[in-house]
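[Protein data]
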Amino acid sequence: MQALPGAVEWALTSLQPLDLLPNPLLAVRLCVEEALANIITHGQDGHSIRLGLRQEEDRLILEVEDDARPFDPTLWCCRAVNDSVETASIGGRGILLMRHFADQMRYERRDGRNHLTLIFPLGQEA
């Protein structure tokens, strides 16, 4: 978890030239944090993680690649929503948030690595 702030800072620095509106910037930041936290927390021992960020026309593409155990977040079924804050448990909402903020979420397992791609629209408030 110690590398998480540095990785998030790298992503935010990479986004500065795009002059994004606040909401898309927040969406990308949250998704980077959640994806990395999930890999570090649930992926078992040591990890090699690669982040990629690029702009294609009117969309931003975030790629997260890791060598943790196979996990497809596109197939993950979220927990039931609690009736109140008092009965809600901590955790288990990160993938749900990523699905909400990204236009598309894609996953594939290739060459022994997880490849997660998140696509965000540019030029509009999320």
Q: What stands out?
A: Residues 15 and 117 are 16 Å apart (CA to CA). The chain has a mean pLDDT of 78. The chain has one domain: 4-121. The radius of gyration is 15 Å.
